[in-house]
Amino acid sequence: MAFNHFNRKQRLLLSSYAILFFFLIIICHFRSARDPGSFFFQPTEGYRPGYSLQRIHESLEWLSVFNRSDNVPPRPVSHVSPPREKTACVGIVTVKRPLQQDLDTTVASILDTLSPEQRAALTVQVLFALSKPSDHPDYNQTWLSNVVDHVLTYDDVDAPGYIIMNLEKKNNIKKKSLIDYRLGLQACYDMTDAPWIIMLEDDVVAQRNWYEHTMRSVQQVEDWRRHDTIKDWLYLRLFYTEKFLGWNSENWPIYLSWSVLLVSLCASAGMYTRRKIRATQGILTNSFLLVVCFFCVPLLITLFFLAGRVTWYPMQDGVHVMNAHGCCSQALLFNRENVPALLEYFEHMEDVIPTKAVDSVIEMQAGRAELDRLAISPSQMQHVGAVSYKEKKKSWKWEGPYRVKGAHGVWSMGFEQAYEMDMDRLFQMDGSA
Ligand SMILES: *[C@@H]1O[C@H](CO)[C@@H](O)[C@H](O)[C@H]1NC(C)=O
Ligand SMILES: *[C@@H]1O[C@H](CO)[C@@H](O)[C@H](O)[C@H]1NC(C)=O
């Protein structure tokens, strides 16, 4: 069907459509640059660290004060309240990583903004998951014992030493991760009676108000639970990546039905208008409608999908049920009540072959026990570990434009965007003061 098959008005309309479409593409190019599920995603834009750089910088500055053995400021922490009155236990399992350790950032960024009361409500324990803990570059750092409540090694927890040594020798990181995660979780469960257990990997950074936000969110979750809005729950996610929140292939029937509906609506509207309004008869000819319904509209639908789901439906701020597609175990707050069953399941899964990843085991337990999983949006934590030994590589070197990044693209775009405004406000306050 040649373009000059159409009359002047029709050609005008089709040309306008082409121009409009072109502009829509340009808009998508900018609007979807940070949506990892979009065709228009640009890694240099999406993975650009902003707020997390600021947090790393300021929290390490805070920590450096505790890094001198001579002049340690009195710690406004611990022993203010007895250990059995803790609100949350923060358990961090740390291993040796290639290139760089981020344990200092993790510990510093969860502590640097806390008031003395908030700090006293937390127990922070770090498990050095190495048979020889002194191999870990941070093990004998001065700041460690100055800010952390419990520095743990395999000797302090009930670790299967022989098995672990074997796994280290065989470099079986997957199975060792399962054991380490269980030991870290168990240690928090045993050593405190905190109702919330926050398990962090050793390469995350927290936003400034993570504690208030998280505690408010968990109260909300408990309210929902009391009113039966949700089922019993296993964890509240403090970190998620948008990467897996795109269009889901299992929803294709829904997407297809909507598309067919839209095309049919368009065709019906065209034919109806043609019948009712005489003046349109010369424009809405059969061939013209054919082009509109089977070419122009499908192209728009395609563009809609290419732009990405998160672009169209960004997650609202607040707490959400996220029983599917929530990725990664970087930062999870567990409900103490459901931890024993999870620990048991971990122990069982350690011997199952093929070995599952930590987050898969947690998801499977939630599925078995029919527990809800929730997430706070935007993420309270960012994953800043650039590399890990989980990647099977011969050698490690810095790659890409940024030093601060999430390995495998495990990164929260929302984290970088959400708190930037706080940052601007703070700078303005600094400026005016
Ligand atoms: C603490 O001091 C050690 C040794 O001087 C140094 O390597 C490390 O980077 C310091 N850490 C922080 C957080 O200041
Ligand atoms: C940590 O231990 C190593 C090896 O024993 C030593 O060289 C280093 O000075 C120690 N660092 C600190 C901060 O104590």
UniProtKB/TrEMBL annotation:
Transmembrane parts of this sequence? 12-32, 252-272, 284-307
Any GO MF annotation of the entry: glycosyltransferase activity
Q: Which domain of life is it from?
A: Eukaryota
UniProt keyword annotation of Metal-binding present: no
What is one cellular component GO term in this UniProt entry? Answer: Golgi membrane
Q: Does Lipid metabolism show up as a keyword for this record? A: no
For this entry, list what GO says about its biological process.
GPI anchor biosynthetic process
Keywords (A to Z) from UniProt: Membrane, Transmembrane, Transmembrane helix
InterPro entries attached to this UniProt entry:
PGAP4
Cited PANTHER family: POST-GPI ATTACHMENT TO PROTEINS FACTOR 4, TRANSMEMBRANE PROTEIN 246
Tell me the protein's name: Integral membrane protein
Q: What's the source species for this entry?
A: Aspergillus eucalypticola (strain CBS 122712 / IBT 29274)
Q: Top-down, what is the taxonomic lineage of the species of origin?
A: Eukaryota, Fungi, Dikarya, Ascomycota, Pezizomycotina
